């Protein structure tokens, strides 16, 4: 695609135009097929195909949808390479291959990606609001995106927290030792659906973990998810208010993939610093973006800017006087926030391969 960009601002050649037009078409096709995945996931069509192949008539009966739409969706999915089709009988039979089944239906798999399609569809519904925000300033708050955004965010991160977080934290002695203290107090700020909080509670059963978020439906969902755990509580609370719960109350505090969303990250980090004991730890998990802006970027940079344009920056800017960080919070930006909040610096923890995230330790 780089060849299609005329860096000198002159007239582009015909091949460059064709290449870039093709690049745009590929994105259009991908977007349309992403919406088809959302239809299949939201209507339970993949789940209906997971255990047994089906004809259009059989899928319509299993999933409770119209037969004509069932046929068109099945044929489109097979054409896209998502489903396999067997046309040896009078009516074509479709089945969901194992890899696709895991990616589209297994909520415990690290490869589970169906929530991304729901997130994409949710953003598309808010485009008029986003356009208004771009013209006039302001933003689109997280709550305006509704359950589609809240649930897809929780679902896409859930397997990483459930399967990988305990191992990741245990691999860092400085952090693991603090979390292993008897009756250690741990705060999970901006916890969302609570999967990170729950993972901490299961990994450190002797600890007492408090999950906080300002989104009431997320807190309600988190409480349901943690119904079998006795060492977890969830409360509605802004990160800026954490120290109001008691200074030096906690041995550790975490902010998982949320600091860049907060309108006043310095105030939040300052409150966390006061709430955590001097011999405790403060860990921020955020996006593993590059150190500097150096276009063109890799896929991580590209997806993080896409999140920022459509979700995170508008959410942050919906609060007056927001610092408007955006999803692409580079290390220098985090270091500036940390120092302004009273920390001495920031170091990167040796945790690799945790999706597209990076773990930072805030130093006293």
Automatic annotation (TrEMBL):
Pfam families assigned: Methyltransf_12, WHD_Rv2258c
BP GO annotations: methylation
Enzyme superclass (EC): transferase
Keyword Methyltransferase: yes
Domain S-adenosylmethionine-dependent methyltransferase Rv2258c-like winged HTH: 34-105
Domain Methyltransferase type: 188-282
Classification via Gene3D superfamilies: Vaccinia Virus protein VP39, Winged helix-like DNA-binding domain superfamily/Winged helix DNA-binding domain
A GO molecular function held by the record: 3-demethylubiquinol 3-O-methyltransferase activity
Entry EC no(s): 2.1.1.222, 2.1.1.64
Database matches in InterPro entries: Methyltransf_12, SAM-binding_MTase, SAM-dependent_MTases_sf, WH-like_DNA-bd_sf, WH_DNA-bd_sf, WHD_Rv2258c
Superkingdom to which the source organism belongs: Bacteria
Record has Cell division as a keyword: no
Keywords: Methyltransferase, Transferase
Entries under SUPFAM superfamilies matching the protein: S-adenosyl-L-methionine-dependent methyltransferases, Winged helix' DNA-binding domain
PANTHER family: METHYLTRANSFERASE TYPE 11
Name listed for the protein in its UniProt record: Class I SAM-dependent methyltransferase
């Amino acid at each position: 695609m780089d060849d299609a960009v005329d860096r000198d601002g002159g007239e582009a050649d015909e091949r460059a135009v064709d290449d870039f037009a093709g690049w745009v078409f590929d994105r259009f096709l991908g977007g349309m097929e992403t919406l088809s995945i959302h239809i299949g996931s939201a209507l339970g069509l993949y789940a209906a195909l997971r255990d047994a192949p089906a004809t259009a008539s059989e899928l319509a009966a299993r999933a409770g949808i119209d037969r004509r739409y069932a046929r068109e969706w099945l044929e489109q999915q097979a054409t896209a390479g998502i489903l396999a089709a067997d046309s040896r009988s009078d009516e074509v039979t479709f089945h969901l291959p194992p890899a696709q089944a895991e990616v589209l239906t297994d909520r415990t798999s690290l490869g589970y990606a169906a929530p991304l399609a729901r997130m994409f569809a949710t953003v598309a519904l808010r485009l008029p609001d986003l356009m208004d925000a771009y013209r006039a300033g302001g933003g689109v708050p997280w709550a305006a995106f509704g359950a589609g955004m809240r649930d897809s965010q929780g679902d896409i991160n859930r397997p990483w927290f459930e399967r990988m977080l305990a191992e990741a934290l245990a691999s860092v002695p400085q952090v693991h030792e603090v979390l292993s203290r008897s009756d250690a107090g741990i705060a999970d700020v901006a916890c969302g659906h609570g999967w990170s909080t729950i993972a901490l509670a299961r990994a450190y059963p002797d600890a007492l973990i408090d999950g906080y978020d300002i989104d009431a439906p997320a807190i309600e969902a988190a409480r349901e998810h943690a119904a079998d755990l006795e060492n977890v509580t969830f409360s509605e609370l802004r990160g800026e208010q954490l120290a109001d719960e008691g200074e030096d109350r906690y041995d550790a505090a975490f902010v998982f993939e949320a600091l860049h969303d907060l309108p006043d990250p310095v105030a939040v980090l300052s409150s966390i610093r006061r709430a955590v004991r001097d011999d405790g730890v403060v860990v921020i998990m955020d996006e593993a973006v590059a150190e500097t802006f150096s276009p063109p970027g890799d896929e991580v940079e590209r997806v993080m800017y896409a999140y920022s344009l459509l979700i995170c920056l508008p959410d942050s800017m919906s609060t007056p006087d927001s610092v408007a960080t955006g999803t692409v919070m580079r290390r220098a930006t985090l270091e500036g926030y940390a120092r302004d909040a009273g920390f001495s610096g920031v170091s990167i923890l040796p945790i690799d391969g945790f999706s597209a995230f990076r773990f930072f330790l805030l130093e006293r």
